[in-house]
Amino acid sequence: MTDAVETPRLRLRRWTSEDAVALAKILAVPDITRYIGEGHAFSKEDTFSWMMRHRRHWEEFGFGLWAAELKETGALAGWMGLATPAWLPEVMPATEVGWLVDKPHWGRGLATEGGRASLDHAFQTLRLEEVVSICYADNVASERVMQKIGLHHERDTAHPRNGARLRIYAMTSTEFEDAARIEAIRVTNGWTH
Fold it and tell me: Which residues pair with 67 in a beta bridge?
């Protein structure tokens, strides 16, 4: 079980009780939570329940969503990592890569950076065969991150509780390995694109 992963700008680590106040502040903003769960802002109680559920996820599965901490300041920037999307039974059994970034940090590439690190962890450490990512169809920013980290559009479906259109992206371990080989060739040859 890997408790922490570092990227150039982020420390992805297990949740602590000290994160509750900062996470509650992030999840109280409707713009941030409109694509999470039922799309409403979280109360402090909702945030506490979310943290407890994800701590149990770590205990049960040996992986989960990490607290995404900015290395430069130590501030909580959101979450990134892996989860089991049991809320969407049609994709099960599955592991989902996901992210949520606090509004002041939007547009800085943190979700892409953390998403890539999460995929590395999924395929290189956990040796998963496939990873999915799910977003509301109108969540253009999240869909862009899915594409940037190399996932491909698999299909669309409806949210089982509210009927909203969802987009499902996926990547297999073979696709991950192929992308890593291509990236190694690109770096070796000095290609910029």
Answer: 13, 79
pLDDT digits (tens), the chain, 193 positions: 567 899 999 999 999 999 999 999 999 999 999 999 878 899 999 999 999 999 999 999 999 999 999 999 999 999 999 999 999 999 999 999 999 999 999 999 999 999 999 999 999 999 999 999 999 999 999 999 999 999 999 999 999 999 999 999 999 999 999 887 777 676 677 776 5
**Which superfamily, per CATH, for 4-188?**
Gcn5-related N-acetyltransferase (GNAT) (3.40.630.30)
pTM tops 0.85: yes
Contact yes or no for 77/9 (Cβ under 8 A): no
